[in-house]
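To whoever picks this up:

The nightly regression suite flagged 16S rRNA aminocarboxypropyltransferase as changed. Nothing in the input moved, so I suspect the structure step. Input below, exactly as stored in the fixture:
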Amino acid sequence: MECHVYYEGDDDPEKCTARRMEKFDEAILYRTMGQVPYGVVLNPHAERALSPADREAGLDTLVALDCSWESAEAASFRMNGVHRALPFLVAANPVNYGRPFRLTTVEALAGALCIFDELEHAESILEPFRWGETFLTLNEEPLRRYSECTDSSEVVAVQEEYLADEE
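Regenerated output under the current build:
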């Protein structure tokens, strides 16, 4: 599974996980939206949750948007592709540690890879980050459960259990 990132460049370059992924040949960055290939677009505003069925549909490209959370509006995700929202996951990065849904680009891509049953690839892209392994540890059970689902509705049902626990 290939990882691609539309890079807006509005975050601190020293903390940018997408740039570090590019440095380690784990992702391809695009600075023009029209260059981004068709694939599964990780979009928190999407109406459907990401599920293993999306991988089974033959889509082998993951696309993420790297931008500041302050500018991550629905309009930012105008890319071509199948738009899917990641289910409940908790951030391990130092800025948003423990906060649900506030993932870095690498955490989002790693979460998607785990849902697609590509744990080794997820470990590989997280390896350059001190907190990378922590992301997988914090989310081990939900990622395993999401990867065992057959479709988006099952993923949402599992997510609802975690959201109920958060309250």
